């Protein structure tokens, strides 16, 4: 399976959902489906889309813009997901006080993405 930038954005949203809810995605402990069944439903697509719940424990105040961003990042159609630049911009605008931390995290993500692109390119060239 080949990765994509859109897939990375989806994965980012899943991780953000874990942070926001302080729980595993899809709340496996309280579902009738097991992980294999949930994976099948996510891959199958269709409506209703299988996504983690974004209910917080009430202790943490979550910016509604972050919830909207997470939902945008796991939109069913990959072409409709925001780019990493758009995600970065939206997150920086949510709380400028945390800009340094966000810059650091996104710089790491960008370096990882460029390294991954180089590795994919090299692998493709070797196969040609």
TrEMBL record:
InterPro entries: Cyclic_nucleotide_synthase, Kinase-like_dom_sf, Prot_kinase_dom. Keywords: cGMP biosynthesis, Lyase, Nucleotide-binding. One of its GO terms (cellular component) is plasma membrane. Pfam families: Pkinase. Its EC number is 4.6.1.2. GO terms for molecular function: adenylate cyclase activity; ATP binding; guanylate cyclase activity; peptide receptor activity; protein kinase activity. It catalyses: GTP = 3',5'-cyclic GMP + diphosphate. GO terms for biological process: receptor guanylyl cyclase signaling pathway. It comes from the Eukaryota. The keyword Nucleotide-binding applies. Coiled coil: none annotated. Transmembrane segments: none annotated. Residues 1-105 form the Protein kinase domain. This is guanylate cyclase. It comes from Dictyocaulus viviparus (Bovine lungworm).
């Amino acid at each position: 399976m080949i990765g994509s930038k859109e897939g990375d954005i989806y994965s980012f949203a899943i991780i953000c959902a874990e942070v926001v809810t302080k729980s595993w995605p899809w709340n496996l402990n309280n579902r009738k489906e097991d992980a294999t069944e949930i994976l099948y439903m996510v891959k199958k697509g269709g409506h209703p889309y299988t996504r983690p719940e974004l209910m917080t424990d009430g202790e943490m105040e979550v910016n509604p813009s972050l919830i909207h961003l997470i939902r945008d990042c796991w939109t069913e159609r990959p072409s409709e997901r925001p780019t990493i630049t758009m995600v970065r911009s939206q997150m920086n605008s949510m709380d400028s006080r945390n800009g340094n931390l966000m810059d650091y995290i996104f710089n790491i993500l960008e370096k990882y993405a460029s390294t991954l692109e180089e590795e994919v390119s090299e692998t493709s060239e070797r196969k040609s």
